[in-house]
Every structure is written in structure tokens, then in C-alpha cells.
Amino acid sequence: MTPGHVPVANGHKLNLRHHLHCPAHLARLATAIHPHEILSQSHQDGVNDRSPPAQGDETTDLSKQYDTPIGLAHTTMQALKDRIKLHYDLASDYYLNLWGEHIHHGYWATDESKANDTKETAQINLIRLLLDISGVGEGSHVLDVGCGVGGTSRYLASQLGCTVTGVTISGKQVQIATRLSKAEAEKEAMEGTSVSADSDGFWPLGKGKVRFIELDAERMGEFFASDAGTFDAVWISEALSHFPNKALFFRNASRVLKVGGKLALADWFKAEGLGETEFKDDIKPIEDGMLLPPLCTQQGYLDLAKGAGLKVFGGPKDISKEVSKTWDISWSLVQNPSLWGFAFSQGRDGIAFLQSFRAMRRGYANGSFRYAVMAFEK
Ligand SMILES: C[S@@+](CC[C@H](N)C(=O)[O-])C[C@H]1O[C@@H](n2cnc3c(N)ncnc32)[C@H](O)[C@@H]1O
């Protein structure tokens, strides 16, 4: 395929470069390239999550066709948050079609698991690991911060009978999460029965319930002021690395938790003591492409949590080697011209996002980029 040209629904190809300067054109393009088309093309191309893992840093023909323009400085942290919101508003249908309802890594704890478990199973394995180390129990009242399209929230409600409030900065994710939860609730009810949310907006799932709220989590302290000290658990999976003010998050988590409540956390980190070259080659493209303020080390999170009055309860458990397969699968999934076309239609952030997948694999291979789970108690 010609670089910058992408197939659209009517079988024609669009030259994306003609549209790049006009936001209105870009928005129309983003909707013209339908996520189902990308999914079906991935399947036609035989891309699946059992593709053989490629080693280290791999440039493909497709990735070579698209240059990543020079990184944009985050002029203000609000500007970064606006870009994060736009990214998830535009891309969440694509995440759902390509990755499913969980927008987080998979966890393959053993060679046997690596050989046999699909990414969907591995994603549930990660949730189970975080449950184990945090001790979040059945029937808990949980605040799922940066909840994506609600995969974890629904799991905690349906499997553990939890009452879960999910918050995300993306209004589109709230729409998708609510739609998926309603559909699951209707499936559980008698066939053909319509199910509605209760007066607080919760949808019944198993013995638990879920609701979703559009909220910049940096405001959660004020938003949940009247619920201060009432949550059994705050759950945050791969969202804190997006937050500019991490100390504020730990203070807010401590504020909403009841005494003895747990903070369950999974996230991305840079290794301790990186040299300038490793930082520039491995970490910078990840921060740039994944829309992250400067990444922290694991010790950095421990210090912030302690500063907010939380005690370490479980971990930190570094599981970089057990999760890195996620990016071999993801790199295979994005070897799809339509997806690069869609990314191109979003401007430089879209291309930098896909290009950063290579940096993720390189960072894991070099040990400069790390993944860990940890839990805290109030
Ligand atoms: C990588 S996704 C993880 C989604 C989900 N936790 C999961 O594991 O499937 C990151 C999430 O963080 C959310 N997020 C990023 N910045 C946020 C903010 N300031 N306030 C609320 N949500 C935010 C995004 O909207 C997205 O849902």
C-alpha cells in the first residue's frame, strides 16, 4: 500500500496527507475508517495472539513507511490531559475491536502459560494477581480509577459481587462501558428482558453492580468528598502513569478509602539509575507516544504512597518478564495498513503512538522499562 493511503468502506483509497492540515477533515476521516474493517482485515491477514513472538526491536516495512514527527513538548499538563482525552475518545472503539474489553497487559506467569494462554486469559490472570496481592475481597465497594471501557469493573462486580464505580477522563469510554455493562446485564437477565440502571446509575451484574462516570481523576478528592472514608478499595490499572500529579492521586486515594481499605495498583515504570542513552532511546519514545508525563520508578510510587499515609501491603512485584509478551502480540496486531492509516488520520500523536510499540518491546528487552504490581493499606 502507498504510504499515507488508506482503504475506506467503499473500497476506495484516501490520500491522508491531503487531509492532515484540517481538523474537520481529520475528524471525518477518523469515522470513515471503521474499526470493524480493521478488525476483519487483521483476521484476514491471519494476525492473532499466537503469532510467534518477535525478538527485541523490530522495524517492519509498514512502520518504516511512517516517520514519527518530532515530539511535542507538553506546554502545560492540562494540554497533555486534553490530548489523553482525545486519544481515548477517538481510539477506544479500535482498542475494543483489537484488544477487547481490557486495556491492560496480560500476565503469563509460567512457560506453560506462555505457550497456552491467550491474551484474554492472560489479562484475567493479571487481575487475579492484583486481587491476590491486594486482598481486595468479595462484596467490596471499589473505585476503579482510569477504568477504560470497564472490563475490570465488570469482572469485579460479576465474579466477586463488588459494587464498582469506574471513572475515566474519556466520555466515549463511559458510553462504551455503559453499553457493554447494559448488554451483559440483559444477557444475565431472562432473555428479552430489558434491564435499567438504579437511581444511582448502577447496572446489576452477578451479585454486584457497576456504574461509570466521566471525571478527570485529579479531581476525585472533591468529587467524592461526601464519600470520603467509605471505599473498601481503590483500583488503578495502567492509568496512574498518565497522571501529571501522582502525589495528588495518592492523597486522594487515601482520602476516599476507609481505614483498612486497600489501594491495588498496576503500572509502567522506568528502571532505577538509567543512563542518558537508555533514557533517550527507550523511555523517551514511550513517554512521547503513550502520552505520559515523566515515568517514575517503583520506589518513587512507594515514597509517594507513604507520604500520603498509606502502608505497603503487597509487593512491589516486578513482573516485566511475565507481561512483556503483550507487546509481541500488540506489534503483530498492528501490522495492518488500515490501522496505520487510521493513526495517520489522527495526526502525529497517532503515528507516535504506534511507533512507541517498538520502544515498549525494546525497553522490556533491555530492562530499562519495567512493569510492577503493588498494594497499599490505609
Ligand atoms: C491504559 S488505559 C487502562 C484502562 C483500564 N484501567 C484497564 O486496565 O483496562 C488508561 C486509562 O486511564 C484513563 N485516564 C488517563 N488520564 C486520566 C485522568 N486524568 N483521569 C481519569 N482517567 C484518566 C484513560 O481514560 C484510560 O481509561
From TrEMBL:
Keywords, ordered alphabetically: Methyltransferase, S-adenosyl-L-methionine, Transferase
Specify where the region named Disordered lies, as residue ranges: 41-63
This entry's Gene Ontology molecular function terms read: S-adenosylmethionine-dependent methyltransferase activity
Record-linked PROSITE patterns: SAM_GTMT (PS51581)
Question: Which superkingdom heads the taxonomic lineage of this protein's source?
Answer: Eukaryota
Pfam families on file: Methyltransf_11
Task: Using the record's annotation, list all stretches that form the Methyltransferase type domain.
Answer: 143-264
Residues of the region (SAM motif I) are 142-151
Q: Where is this region: SAM motif III?
A: 256-265
Q: Record's InterPro entries?
A: Erg6_SMT_methyltransf (IPR050447), Methyltransf_11 (IPR013216), PiNMT-like (IPR025774), SAM-dependent_MTases_sf (IPR029063)
- UniProt-listed GO biological process terms: methylation
Query: In which family does this protein belong, per the annotation?
Result: Belongs to the class I-like SAM-binding methyltransferase superfamily. gTMT family.
What's this protein's name?
S-adenosyl-L-methionine-dependent methyltransferase
Look up and give the organism this protein is from. Answer: Schizothecium vesticola
